[in-house]
Amino acid sequence: MRAVASGSGLSRSALYRAFVPVGGVGHEILRRRVARLRSAIFRSGRDVRISNLVWTLGFVTPSHAARAFKGTHGLAPGSSARKSGPRRGAPWRTSNPIICGARSGA
Hints:
The structure is a single chain. It is elongated and about 45 Å long. The longest helix has 20 residues, at 25-44. The chain is an all-alpha fold. The chain starts with a helix and ends in a 6-residue tail after the last helix. Helix 3 (25-44) crosses helix 5 (62-73). Helix content is 60%, strand content 0%. It has 7 helices and no strands. The chain has helices spanning 2-8, 12-18, 25-44, 50-56, 62-73, 77-83, 97-100.
């Protein structure tokens, strides 16, 4: 925190006071981690291992990340990953004969 404060030209206590209106420094750090987790999940789709992302983004434990994510987005990170679409590289299936390469009347 000292590096952030000195980089911004503020004292550590002034930096903490500046974040009081948004819930404090800790709240802002958690909010940003959750936002980065959500972004990483949607970028990676269903191929992502949530636990790997959690450690990379600085959460204390996977359950801590899951509680914070669910508190913000209303569902667990794993559910969010499942809703983000098909796995990359998964075969795309369709019954449309034109897309499948079949010709009509052939």
